[in-house]
Design a protein that fits this description.
- This protein is of the alpha+beta class.
- It is built from 13 helices and twelve strands.
- It has helices at residues 3-16, 18-55, 85-94, 129-132, 145-149, 159-165, 210-218, 236-251, 266-309, 311-319, 324-359, 369-395, 399-403; strands at 60-65, 68-70, 73-76, 98-113, 116-125, 137-140, 154-157, 176-179, 182-190, 206-209, 225-230, 261-265.
- Strand 4 (98-113) and strand 5 form a beta hairpin.
Length: 406
């Protein structure tokens, strides 16, 4: 029999039992839709995390004190006093692969203006800190090198701080706010950055000269961190190696001694979170693929029923000269059509579900061509795989036995 005739017979059989055919396809429809939606959510989250980290600067390098172990007890990084201002001066003079370098200080507390207050954190750096951390000024200005040298009590506010301590819309520029009882003059306001992927409010921050925080708030003589902006993203590894070598020299560490500092790059962060999110994509895809398997089993069951119901028809075709392979292809094509039609509807369902997740639930979603093609190919394979055995059984029927079937 020609393939066209086999297609016509298969389509006719599907149309004769519309409800049963739809219920047969339903498992495939749900399976394909679920696979596309779950992969879109997983891949969307993956890209969102990478984008969020990259927005902080892909050439950003952080140097932090190594955690100390005293008497078998880990003391944590905050108790380490290995990073000093002299390290910043030494690195600034000798490091050739960075465009900017800044000490970093931070602490948390309550910011107060009049009767309004807000719990937040205050971060400090030098005049290059704003470039390294990719902050932008929306009004006012950033502090100067002279203000850093004199430990001036000036600060720049994030928009969340402004909204909460100046709720009446007062222009914050020139106003005085208090942090841990220390008065600060507001000289600038940052542009909004919004929440990052981890849910942290990037606008809930105050920036002040690091020297002001060290001398007037924490009263510490050591730094919490040193941050760098590398000249090239392609040479992050080489830049980190240069920083390590210079810091070891600055700290007078011998070859056998471990580093008393840790170097972190955005590449490492992207790689770590990328591995986690990729695992999430695989997990979500695997779970949703189970419904495709269930749909395939549904096709096989219905095809068994179809073979039983049409046994006399099969016997008649075999008796008048039909070949076993024709019967095999007839039922196989029918199973494939159910799978393909279910796959098409499932793809549309996947797009619709992804649209709802993105615009109603506000989750990051990314549908890739590969996920759609893969889902469609899998559902077609399932149609062939689960349709073959019933089709093979139909083609192997004895014509005489089939004609006598009641």
């Amino acid at each position: 029999m020609k393939i066209i005739n086999l297609l016509k017979i298969a389509i006719s059989a599907i149309r004769r039992n519309k409800l049963r055919s739809f219920l047969t396809m339903l498992g495939i429809v749900i399976g394909v839709g679920a696979v596309i939606t779950m992969l879109a959510i997983g891949q969307g989250s993956n890209e969102s995390i990478k984008s969020s980290i990259a927005s902080m600067g892909t050439n950003l390098i952080n140097v932090m004190p190594a955690s100390r172990n005293r008497g078998g007890v880990q003391q944590g990084r905050t108790s380490s006093q290995t990073l000093k201002e002299k390290d910043v001066a030494y690195l600034s003079k000798n490091c050739t692969m960075v465009t900017a370098i800044s000490p970093e200080m931070n602490t948390s507390g309550q910011v107060v203006s009049g009767s309004n207050n807000w719990p937040t954190s205050i971060n400090g750096g030098n005049e290059e800190y704003i470039t390294i951390k990719k902050y932008e000024i929306s009004s006012g200005r950033f502090y100067t090198a002279k203000e850093i040298k004199t430990a001036a009590k000036v600060c720049v506010l994030g928009q969340t701080i402004v909204d909460n301590i100046f709720p009446d819309g007062t222009d914050p520029i020139g106003q005085t706010v208090r942090f841990e009882k220390i008065p600060f003059k507001v000289i600038g306001v940052f542009k909004e950055k919004g929440d990052n992927t981890f849910g942290d409010d990037q606008d809930d921050v105050i920036l002040a000269p690091y020297s002001t925080i060290m001398k007037r708030i924490t009263r510490e003589t050591y730094l919490r961190a040193i941050v760098f902006s590398a000249k090239s993203e392609d040479k992050i590894t080489e830049t980190s190696a240069e920083i390590e070598e210079l810091l070891r020299s600055s700290h007078g560490l011998k070859d056998a001694e471990d580093n008393d500092f840790e170097i972190r790059t955005q590449e490492e962060l992207i790689s770590n979170f990328g591995s986690i999110s990729e695992l999430l994509v695989v997990l979500l895809g695997s779970i949703s693929a189970i419904s495709l398997l269930v749909g395939g089993i549904g096709i096989m069951n219905i095809m068994y029923v179809s073979v039983t119901e049409r046994t006399r028809e099969i016997g008649l075709r075999l008796a008048i000269g039909g070949k076993g392979k024709d019967i095999l292809w007839q039922f196989l094509i029918e199973a494939m059509l159910l799978s393909v039609f279910g796959g098409i509807i499932g793809v549309l369902l996947g797009y619709l579900a992804s649209f709802i997740v993105e615009h109603v639930m506000n989750w990051p979603v990314l549908i890739t061509e590969s996920s759609v093609v893969m889902s469609f190919m899998v559902c077609t394979f399932i149609g062939v795989f689960f349709g073959w055995y019933p089709a093979r059984k139909a083609s192997a029927l004895d014509p005489i036995v089939a004609l006598r079937h009641e």
